[in-house]
Amino acid sequence: MSNTGSKGRIMEVWSRGETGPVCFNTEFDTKRFWPLLKSITKKYKIEYNPNHICPTDDSELDALWNAGMEFFLECGILNVSTERLILFNEQETKKVLANVHRETVLGEGKEACTLRWRAPESYDEGMNPAGVLGRILGPISEDLYEKVCWSYAQEPLIDFVHFQGVVFEINGTAVKPFSPFELASEQKRVAIVKDVCRRAGRPGLSDGASMPVTTQAEMSAAQHWGVKQGDVRHVYVMPHMRTDYDQMCRKYFWDEYGTNTWGILQSFVGGLPGGPSTSAVNGMADLIAYQMLYEPSVCGLWSSDALYFTNTSKYALYVDNFCGAAFQRHVKYPALLGGGWQMTAGIGSEEYFWETACGSIGSTTLGFCVSGGTGHQSGGLDQACGLGARFAAEVGRAVGKARLTRKQANEMMLKIFPKYQPGIDARNLHKKGGDFRTVYDLKTVQPKPEYLAIYEKVKSELRDMGLPIE
Amino acid sequence: MGKQDKDAVMSKLHDAIMNFNEDEARSGAEEAVKSGADVLKAVEVMGDAMSELGKGFEKMEVFLPEIVMASGALKEAMKVLQPEILKLVASGTAGKKRPIVIIGTVKGDVHTVGKDMVATMMMTQGFDVVDLGHDVSPSAFLDKARELSATIIAASALMSTTLPVQKDLIDFLNAKNVRQNFKVMVGGGVATKEWAERIGADGYGQDAIEGVEIAKKLTA
């Protein structure tokens, strides 16, 4: 476990939600959050440039950092459980940010991997050079559950996994939050994951899933046979500068149990935080808020479009890349989990691989980890496979081999967007591709030749673009 | 008050919505009533302003909090205009009532972004939207819909584990024998058209834009 463990400070911070200024949930967005966000974004002249998705100008990052810091200090965090603000002053914020943990260990034994800060365009440190997150999200059929997990555990380039496929039925009964079936489903999920990892020869492979809705269901698998200290569980600053007691309880429990926690920047572009520039300022403040409220072991970049759910649009990757780069320039936190956690297109489609490539190119160049595996907006049935995460890892390695500059990465991303962004603009990209049953041979748990051909085709085109992917 | 003054009042109401200004909307409505202006025309003008904002919202020129503020301004004006409209209803000269939509994220689910997008777009397209927030039980949907004589109940669920609550909602409506009184729409990350058909919902929207199109069809 890699937390700094300053629970004493965090308890004092959380208690401010009992004494801070009253701010009604119904008024926070319109009377505090939005007017401040709009004016501070304008003050610092933060502007979105569609030709500039991977940042190359450090002065732009500094402006975003300053805007995010001012917004964080002025707005504060709303505790929706108490309808009071948790406020911070500049001095304490800078003190905490100067004292964040410098490395995080995920997993155990020979599967333990250490995440450290890595500078942009720096390829001689870090993990290969980027750590690789395999991501499973969304509903997974009962008969496929073990096989989908296996498809990730068998991939040697994957360093840690969010085995977050949803078990949605127990013996034919629908699993609902707060029901005993939810506890049973989480226990079943953890048991399958641990068994698969053990049989794959990777018993210490870190599981960062946060499948259940309720804290009690998560806690139910905190057993000697279940959640390990090398695993990770989420704790959220809920989107757009809010949190609640449920999140604090999660953090309190997992710290006590000794397991890592993760958090993610969540800025829904086009929704509450407005357009891409205001969303970036909100995202910047989000990352600062995590350190002040929760000190998670690891943080991710997870912006999305609000109107049509996608993690890999130009808007989402702009927010992720600029916020992540600005944060790492000023804080030097362990490598962030870079943008593009789940793809919009279904697994096995060309677009799915292009989305994965676009996220990985920016992330690796900027010093983040890469991620991949899930498709179909993480909403479709059986839309996850290890091949996508393998591909993310291979792109990351190729970026390191090519030693891409930020400018080169940006140019390459701009060449890739036309291969899938039109499907996002038309709101039909999720209809592409197959699912686990169609993409994998279910006996061998290997990708079928026709889908490997698509994967090879995209790799070949990447080579033509100048990326030396093997 | 002459035509020019009445036009000025309409213009004031339009601008109040466009500028999300509750005070101006209320005083504009008061002026409209005092001057004997056509209150139905006043509602139409404000509806047009909401539609303009809606177009800007789709193009990311106007943002969600601003639509919420504009909707607040519209509601302030309606508090003043509603008694006059009721008089017209009583005399049989009122136009069509704005359909009421009860919307929320179902019990056990805390995800609100998609639901907020749908609610926001509906506000700009001629619906009176009552947003119950998240973690809304089937009973809470039902009670509010009956209280307000709603036309549509829209239930969002992001997760596979909260999807069954959409079916519960329809089961509850059937159990109370009021299913035929409401159109039920479902949506959310894992909801599909097939799921909507299987549970007997009246409409399904893949995203906010489609959701509003379906709502318009259901109320046409």
What would you say this structure looks like, in words?
- The complex is a heterodimer of chains A (470) and B (220).
- In chain A, helix 2 packs across helix 9 (276-293), helix 3 crosses helix 9 (276-293) and helix 10 packs parallel to helix 11.
- Chain A has 470 residues and is α/β, with parallel strands linked by helices.
- In chain A, the strands form 7 sheets. Chain A has a 4-stranded parallel β-sheet with strand order 9-6-5-16. A 3-stranded mixed β-sheet of chain A has the order 2-1-11.
- Mean pLDDT of chain A is 95; it is low at 1-5.
- Chain A contains 16 helices and 18 strands.
- Chain B is α/β, with parallel strands linked by helices and 220 residues long.
- In chain B, 60% of the residues lie in helices and 10% in strands.
- Chain B has helices spanning 3-18, 22-35, 39-58, 64-91, 113-123, 138-148, 164-175, 193-199, 208-219, and strands at 100-105, 128-131, 152-156, 183-187, 203-205.
- Chain B has a 5-stranded parallel β-sheet, sandwiched between helices.
- In chain B, helix 8 links the parallel strand 4 (183-187) and strand 5 (203-205).
- Chain B is globular and about 60 Å long.
- Chain B starts with a helix and ends with a helix.
- The model of chain B has no long low-confidence stretch (mean pLDDT 91).
- The chains are: A alpha/beta (470), B alpha/beta (220).
- The A-B interface holds A 29-30, 33-34, 138-139, 166, 168, 174-178, 182, 185, 212-213, 238-239, 268-272, 274-276, 278, 306-309, 377-380, 427 and B 58, 60, 63-66, 68-69, 72, 107-110, 113-114, 116-117, 159-165, 189-190, 206-210.
Compile the SSE list and pairings.
The complex is a heterodimer of chains A (470) and B (220).
Chain A: H1 7-19, H2 25-43, H3 58-75, E1 77-79, E2 84-86, H4 90-97, E3 103-106, E4 113-116, E5 132-139, H5 145-153, E6 160-166, E7 169-170, E8 173-174, H6 180-199, E9 206-207, H7 215-219, E10 232-234, E11 242-243, H8 245-257, E12 260-265, E13 268-269, H9 276-293, E14 298-301, E15 304-305, H10 314-331, H11 350-366, E16 370-372, H12 386-402, H13 406-416, H14 421-425, H15 436-439, E17 440-441, E18 446-447, H16 449-464
Parallel strand pairs in A: 1-11, 5-6, 5-16, 6-9, 10-12, 12-14, 13-15
Antiparallel strand pairs in A: 1-2, 3-4, 7-8, 17-18
Chain B: H1 3-18, H2 22-35, H3 39-58, H4 64-91, E1 100-105, H5 113-123, E2 128-131, H6 138-148, E3 152-156, H7 164-175, E4 183-187, H8 193-199, E5 203-205, H9 208-219
Parallel strand pairs in B: 1-2, 1-3, 3-4, 4-5
Helix pairs in contact in B: 1-2, 1-3, 1-4, 2-4, 3-4, 4-5, 5-9, 6-7
